[in-house]
Amino acid sequence: MKTVLFQIFTLCIPVFLMAQNTKDQNEKRILSEIDSSQADNMVLKQSFVVNVPLDSVWNAYTTKKGWESWASAKAQIDLKVNGVIKSNYNQDANIDDDSTIILHIINYVPKRMLTLQAELNKNFPDFMRADEKSLYNMILFEMVSSTKTKIISYGIGYKNNEKYMSLMKFFVKGNEQSYLNLINYLETGKPSVNY
Q1: How far apart are CA 116 and CA 108, in angstroms?
Q2: Cβ atoms of 31 and 14 closer than 8 Å
Q3: Rounded to an integer, what distance in angstroms lies between the CA atom of residue 177 and that of residue 133?
């Protein structure tokens, strides 16, 4: 379920600072914040800088090879407005079976912004499936220099209630692991899938 929930949070949650050091790294790479200042909603903001050019980061998010190198074992990507990213954590699964996660591409601006909305399958809690049309992930890509790129992910649409709050630590931790996979893949050139 941890890996399935990453897809939502690559969709979605920012008031409390929840940055975490990883065992393999001495510096904090990912900043996670939950903003619950809006009475009914929460936004998760997660940001980090990776030491590679913008093109490399964009390709990691928008190509089959890139996605399979950090996010899931199997992927299929149709990069267009109203396109989809299909992913499955099981290398042997059929990409169209009921364990596949489908992310709808709502819109994008090449190398600047990507907005996704999950089609939640049976592995997600019922209360989240009831809210699926309100859950989005907006990912911003910013060139810091010719060799550095900043990624900011906004998870939008989470309800400000106990059910969602109880999942926040789990989601933040899962997302941070996925982003560390991405950083490792981009900075070493070696696939990094630890989910």
Answers
A1: 9
A2: no
A3: 26
Residue-by-residue DSSP string for 110-143: TTTEEEEEEE--TTS-HHHHHTGGG-EEEEEEEE
- Cα–Cα distance, 159 to 12 (Å, whole number): 11
User: Which amino acid type is present at position 129?
Assistant: R
CA dihedral of 7, 10, 16, 22, whole degrees rounded to 10 = 80
Query: What pLDDT is recorded for position 177?
Result: 93
Question: Whole-model pTM above 0.85?
Answer: no
Q: 56-76: string of b/e by CB count within 10 Å (b at 16+)?
A: bbbbbbbeeebbbbbbbbbbb
And the tokens for 153?
């992910």
14 to 72, 158, 180: CA distances (angstroms)? 25, 10, 19
Pairing of strands 113-119, 101-109: antiparallel
| pLDDT one-digit tens code per residue, 83-114 | 999 999 999 999 998 889 999 999 999 999 99
Element (H, E) at 103: strand 101-109
Residue 27 pLDDT greater than 60, yes or no: no
CA distance 158 to 9: 10
Alpha carbons 102 and 24: distance in angstroms, whole number: 31
